[in-house]
Write a structure and sequence with these properties.
alpha/beta; Rossmann fold; 15 helices; globular; binds malonyl-coenzyme A; binds adenosine monophosphate
Length: 520
């Protein structure tokens, strides 16, 4: 049987000169391609020694480091399923993910070992390792004793490679299952679509627990045998310095907004660059235009999601399908990518003509097979003819450019992270003295959109907005915390008694308008 393990494809793309530098970090460390190969072999051998079942889930909540990326590669290499977790998640969130995914192995930071291992052991996980961002931890100690040679486990393309949890508008988070084929086909297509060439160098400044930083960026570089300039945390000044020796950059819109606040951003400091790519959240047209004016580069915006990886993209060059069009149009997310069928449908599911707004549905080799252990949810989100309902609302014009105009899912995208109002409201509603709450997204100059909570007290209860925020902070990841909270006597409702979130949004939408962009 042909080995369709994604690792085999990535490893096959390593350059012949294995001693060349593959990753250079912002604190001066260099990793050769040989280092990536040997270290991922050692970690894969460690996973094999643990005697865990094939395709076990390996749950990982660690700070960004090259070793964390190597752990991802080792998980693929050993034929297991990688389950990355945002470092901001706190105990209630981690408790749910571990309970739901039942990982055979959990890897966390040494600092969090106490509470994470308690949760993991309670859920039946037998192996908990630590991995810190300074190349210490029990994972590396144990792997150091393992062989640095390893033959990749044989996997079919339809076997699972990763699970990414995405929150739901109702109920708990769902684990989007991605196969080796989903990931490989998307990465191979993007290598061609975005015109990766020998000598490309990627500035990697995104977190590696989501599709954007983990798959789109890392697979892009590895599959092209390209060096990565690795930033543990996004710092606009340091990224800008690296742009002078790089060719490709990928970021969420907030990263572009913050770089625009740097006086040093200009045509000269970006002259070495070939391509700037944006996605994960809407890129404002003013950001798109300001970038063009300051740098002379036109940002290429693309659209994707955890369940599908990349779906559409503005063109890098003529792609042979759209009458040779090469225009990257601000405010659009470009053309459906080769192999992706994208349609816009009305509420009854009937496909709509060009320019009409409706729900976006997609099909293709990149689309996930379903949610982990949630067959009903999976069935709900797919149509009878196999299209996935993205929950995004948009239109396709006569030239085939896709524009996203909104979302049917009640979701806030803040600095590229998803925040589900239903989850936050659930926590607020459980607090003493709270009768009801509503969380809405409003425009924000730095994060694009942020949450605002409006809370109704129970009769006679005294609620303080600060107290509500403080209690949320003790329970939830920090990026989910509403940036403002109001305690009021009533919520706007329609004739059916349903809270009118659009009215709340209108009431609060100018709230952060006066803020300047975050200074660096
Ligand atoms: C940080 N904070 C945020 C936030 N990030 N608040 C709202 N939204 C965010 N995204 C808050 C923290 O809670 C904290 O508040 C304060 O900002 C400082 O925290 P920090 O960690 O120092 O922030 P910073 O380093 O400035 O992070 C900002 C950021 C980061 C933009 C660099 O959010 C980021 O890396 N975003 C990228 C997310 C991403 O990769 N998404 C891809 C998803 S994949 P306090 O009050 O605690 O001090 C996907 C599919 C696709 O969507 O198409 O790609
Ligand atoms: P996630 O669940 O984190 O993978 O987020 C996916 C969602 O991000 C999509 O369903 C879209 O709503 C949004 N998204 C991704 N890219 C873009 C983009 N370029 N413009 C607007 N929204 C986007």
């Amino acid at each position: 049987m042909k080995n369709e393990n994604l690792f085999a494809a990535l490893r096959g793309a390593f350059p012949a000169r294995l001693d060349d530098i593959a990753v250079e970090t912002d604190n001066g460390l260099c990793y050769s391609w040989r280092d990536l190969d040997r270290a991922s072999a050692m970690m894969a051998n460690l996973l094999e020694q643990l005697d865990i079942p094939p395709s076990s889930r390996i749950a990982v909540q660690v700070e960004k480091s090259v070793e964390a990326m190597i752990l991802y590669l080792a998980t693929l290499r050993a034929g297991h399923v990688f389950l990355p977790l945002n470092t901001a998640y706190q105990s209630a969130e981690i408790d749910y993910f571990i309970g739901n995914a039942e990982p055979a192995v959990v890897v966390c930071t040494g600092r969090n070992f106490g509470w994470v291992s308690t949760i993991a052991f309670k859920a039946g996980t037998r192996h908990v390792f630590t991995l810190n961002d300074d190349r210490t931890g029990t994972l590396l100690e144990r792997a150091a004793a393992c062989s640095d040679r390893h033959t990749p486990a044989v996997r079919r393309g339809s076997d699972l490679a990763a699970i990414l949890y995405t929150s739901g508008t109702t109920g708990r988070s769902k684990g989007a299952m991605l196969t080796h084929d989903n990931l490989h086909s998307n990465a191979a297509m993007l290598k061609d679509y975005w015109g990766w060439v020998p000598g490309d160098v990627l500035v990697h400044a995104l977190p590696i627990f989501h599709v954007h930083g983990l798959f789109v960026a890392i697979h892009g570089a590895l599959l092209n045998g390209s060096k990565m300039l690795w930033h543990a945390k996004f710092d606009p000044k340091r990224v800008m310095a690296d742009l002078q020796r790089a060719t490709v950059f990928m970021g969420v819109p907030t990263l572009y907004v913050r770089m625009l606040a740097e006086p040093a951003l200009n045509k000269q400091t970006t002259r070495h660059m070939r391509l700037f790519i944006a996605g994960s959240a809407p890129l404002l047209i003013e950001t798109f235009q300001a970038w063009q004016e300051r740098t002379g580069h036109t940002i290429l915006e693309r659209y994707g999601m955890s369940e599908t990886i990349m779906l559409s993209s503005n063109p890098y060059r003529a792609d042979g399908r759209h009458g040779g069009q090469t225009e990257r149009r601000g405010g659009t997310v470009g053309f459906p990518l080769p192999g992706v069928s994208l349609r816009v449908v009305d509420d009854a599911g009937k496909p709509l003509p060009v320019d009409e707004i409706g729900g976006i549905q997609v099909k293709g080799p990149n689309v996930f097979p379903g949610y982990w252990r949630m067959p009903e949810k999976t069935a709900e989100e797919f149509t009878a003819d196999g299209y996935f309902k993205t929950g995004d609302v948009g239109k396709v014009d006569a030239r085939d450019y896709v524009t996203i105009v909104g979302r049917s899912k009640d979701l806030i995208i803040s600095g590229g992270y998803n925040v589900y109002p239903a989850e936050i409201e659930g926590y607020i509603n459980e607090m003493a003295g709270v009768a009801e709450s509503a969380v809405v997204g409003v425009p924000h100059p730095d994060f694009g959109e942020v949450g605002v909570a409006v809370v109704i007290p129970k009769p006679g209860a005294q609620l303080q907005a600060d107290g509500i925020i403080a209690e949320l902070k003790s329970k939830l990841a920090n990026f989910k915390i509403p940036k403002q909270c109001f305690v009021v006597n009533e919520l706007p409702r329609n004739a059916m008694g349903k809270v009118q979130k659009n009215v709340l949004r209108d009431q609060h939408q100018g709230m952060f308008a006066g803020l300047t962009k975050k200074p660096s």
